[in-house]
Amino acid sequence: MASQIDSLLKFHTDALNLRAQRQQLLASNIANADTPGYKARDIDFHQALQAMLAGSATATATAVVQTRSAHLPGAQVNGTNMPGKALYRSEVQPSLDGNTVDMDVERAQFAQNAIHYEANLMMINSQLKALLSAIQG
Amino acid sequence: MSLFNIFNVSGGALTAQSQRLNTVASNLANADSVSGPDGKPYRAKQVVFISMPVAGGEASSVRVSEVIEDQSPLKKVHDPKHPMADPQGYVSLPNVNVVDEMVNMISASRSYQNNVEVMNTAKTLLLKTLQLGS
């Protein structure tokens, strides 16, 4: 039974994790809007979700070996920390300092992603409510 | 929880942008300072931003790597009566471009507002996540 509840909630939990990761990447783009040479990043949500559902998210992540204490950990191999693969955004209006952040795009995507995140929460909530009513009658 | 990282990312950006705003304030305040503590005219200061990865992900914050002094030539004004005038009667004034500084100020303040907005959104999302199942 427990595994059934797990698989019932899995889709929206996976999607929620991806949304959280995307929100973080978009926040980092907005934070670096004035940093010379910064390249805007994003994930392909559709592909990342497909990969997660297929269980191949772990296959795409490359293991990083830390040989010194100062090395950054990188993406975790089990895929729970950063499930989606971060890509670089193609630029529309390149700027001279090498920065590819387009504030209009980033703000719009940030707002859109936040709404999708809330929608995911609502779906999980309603599934939990349905389960609860099935238990309690 | 990766949403918590947003506070590190945007918090770093807030610090960097407020330092930029501080530099602008200093430049504007000293736009006419013909002499500083070292006896030389004030030179405009500019901040240099670099991006800095945060732990546990691809996201990166931003920080000020250094504050540089503008090395462009100082403004020369002919005023023989001025106490700081050189033998030819010219006074060196700071190389602060007031128009540039005002543009810099507006840009910094907009970026600051953007990052506050980002943190507010992240806070709302986290609070809603905490109320999950209630």
Explain what the structure shows.
The complex is a heterodimer of chains A (137) and B (134). Chain A is built from 4 helices and 2 strands; from the N terminus they run αβααβα. Chain A is mainly α and 137 residues long. Chain A has one domain (2-136). In chain A, strands 1-2 form a two-stranded antiparallel sheet. The radius of gyration of chain A is 18 Å and the shape is extended. The model of chain A is unreliable at 57-61 (pLDDT under 50). With 134 residues, chain B is of the alpha+beta class. The mean pLDDT of chain B is 91. Classes of the chains: A mainly alpha (137), B alpha+beta (134). The interface between A and B is large, with 35 and 39 residues.
Q: Could you give the count of β-strands of chain A?
A: 2
Briefly note the structural class of the backbone of chain A.
Answer: mainly alpha
- Please state the average pLDDT score of chain B: 91
The arrangement of helices and strands of chain B along the chain is HEEEEH
Largest sheet of chain B: 2 strands, antiparallel
Specify the overall morphology of chain B.
Answer: elongated
Poorly predicted runs of 5 or more residues of chain A: 57-61
Supply the key terms:
heterodimer, A: 137 residues, mainly alpha, two-stranded antiparallel ribbon, 2 strands, 57% helix, extended, B: 134 residues, alpha+beta, two-stranded antiparallel sheet, 2 helices, 46% helix, 20% strand
Write the layout of secondary structure elements.
The complex is a heterodimer of chains A (137) and B (134).
Chain A: H1 2-31, E1 41-43, H2 45-54, H3 57-60, E2 86-88, H4 103-136
Antiparallel strand pairs in A: 1-2
Helix pairs in contact in A: 1-2, 1-4
Chain B: H1 2-29, E1 45-53, E2 60-69, E3 75-78, E4 90-93, H2 98-130
Antiparallel strand pairs in B: 1-2, 3-4
Helix pairs in contact in B: 1-2
